[in-house]
Amino acid sequence: MTSETRNSISILLTGDDPDLRRRAAEELAAAPGLAPVTALAAALEDDNKGVRDAAGRALFATGGLHVARAIVEYIGHDNIVTRNLVAELLVKLGAIAIPAILPYLEHEHQDVRKFAVDILGLIGSDEPTVRMLPLLRDADENVVVSTVEALGNMKSEASMQALCETYDRFEYARPVVAEALGKIGSSEAAQFLMDRYSRSLGTLSTDPVTPFAIIEALGALGSGDALARLEESVDRVTGTLRSATLHAMVRISERLGRPLPSAPGLKEGYLRAMKESEPAVRISGVKGVSAYAGGDVTEALIRSLGASPEVDTVIVPALLLRDETLNLGIASLMLLPAAQRKAVIGLVGRLTMETIQHVMRRAISTGDEEIFDRAFVAIADQWGEADEETRAVIVDALFRLDGDRAVEFLDAIMNDPDPWLRMHVIEVIAAIADPRAPGFIARFLQDDDEMVREVAMGTLHNKGLDLAAQF
Question: Do residues 262 and 226 lie in contact, with contact meaning Cβ atoms separated by under 8 Å?
Fold first, then answer.
């Protein structure tokens, strides 16, 4: 050991200045020998966070089983900060740390056993499966549950039989066993879950959680047999459990490349699923209900717009394919909360362009013009109460509906005495792609207010246009 290393160890363990202790820890990173590792492990108890973090980084940089052995004893530390720091470091060290952790699976204190199991589960290797299986019979329920979770995270197929026995042995462990089997993903796991699902429906009143866990697992790994079993049972369940069942059916159907189940009796279930709190379930509801014709379905899809960007990515394509969407979208604008109107306005704008493209081969009929006119009025009426982002969508939609009329609409705003509003209009128009937009912005180059003129000039310059030369 060099004199520099000895000095760094001394400062790290006894120094008064935390900055010096922190630098000493950094200097000990990857230093050879056990003494630096032991000192850095002790520094994980330091009162100063900067020192603790520096010691953790140095230990990780050193790496190896000897580091794991030096720090693993701290998983039983009284200080939760130290325990968590050690756990994080052991997980980062990965599979190489497993031999150091294994003895703690037999620790006398249940919290230490649980913590050791949690760490092994996060490491994710199935190497320690055999040593962990006895903990499925542990006297402490938390240890049992953590062991089940860890084996699932490890995707340990070797634990299948023991997990199934645990499901039947401990009622409290059934939901987490079902989740673990779903992660393991074998055909044997799916068969076991299908069998226990039917039984779980019989005890639904006393155990409402387990059926949800089984359905979620079957959705993740189920085959055609699982799909058939769920279809048979879907009429036996109600409420949120039915929504979860339909979600699982959609997931399995998509994975198998099959059409989504669309029996007449499932329609109301899909509509209800669209109202659940879980976005993934709402998305499955949208996918399932989209197979049904009718204005009631279209209205339900429109009413669901704008609540979740994630769900909107599924709703919008579905609505674009439905004949009633444009008319019902226009009619719904005033009925929706302000937060959802922006999504509907954008949808109407998109539908307008697609409708125009669809009728390009023939003259636009009087009926088309009436729809566009009603859409223009309905959207323009939203301007006064709209926020900045929605106003940008409004302008874009108005230009799509009728560019010349949109210019007339904005002319009135252009003459507003408030220069800040005029500058805002410039910013809104700058965001749309209509070829008439730059020409309209150029009008503001003659504005009475200098700031408005500067904003217009800067906007046109940013677009790479030199319309200012025309004025």
Answer: no
Q: Quick check: 347 and 319 in contact, CB under 8 A?
A: yes
From the list 459, 455, 392, the residue with the least C-alpha distance to 422 is 455
DSSP class of residue 469 equals G
H helical segments located in 46-79: 49-62, 65-71
d(CA 136, CA 131): 11
Q: Specify the DSSP element, H or E, that contains 404.
A: helix 403-414
Q: Helix (H) and strand (E) counts for the chain?
A: 28, 0
CA distance 242 to 236: 8
Tokens of 126: 């199935």
Distance CA 205, CA 83 (A): 40
Cβ pair 434, 422 in contact under 8 A: no
- Residue 363 is predicted with a pLDDT of 44
Q: What whole-number distance in Å separates Cα of residue 253 and Cα of residue 246?
A: 10
CA distances from 217 to 162, 243, 260, 261 (A): 18, 15, 19, 19
| Encoded tokens for 122 | 């996060």
pLDDT for 226-263, tens place per residue? 999 999 999 989 999 999 999 999 999 999 999 999 99
Would you state the pLDDT for residue 262? 92
pTM: 0.75
Tokens 């209800």 -> residue: 272
pLDDT digits (tens, 9 = 90+) for 190-211: 899 999 998 898 888 888 999 9
Q: What is the largest CA-CA distance in the chain?
A: 93
- 49-53 contacts: CB < 8 A, separation 24 or more? 50/18, 50/19, 50/22, 51/12, 51/18, 51/21, 51/22, 51/25, 52/81, 52/82, 52/85
Alpha-carbon distance 259 to 73, whole Å?
Answer: 55
Positions in the chain whose pLDDT score sits under 50: 358-364, 468-471
- Residue 307 is predicted with a pLDDT of 85
Tell whether the torsion through CA atoms of 377, 380, 385 and 391 is positive or negative: positive
The shares of helix, strand and coil residues in the chain, as percent rounded to the nearest 5, are 80, 0, 20
The tokens for 405 are: 């009329």
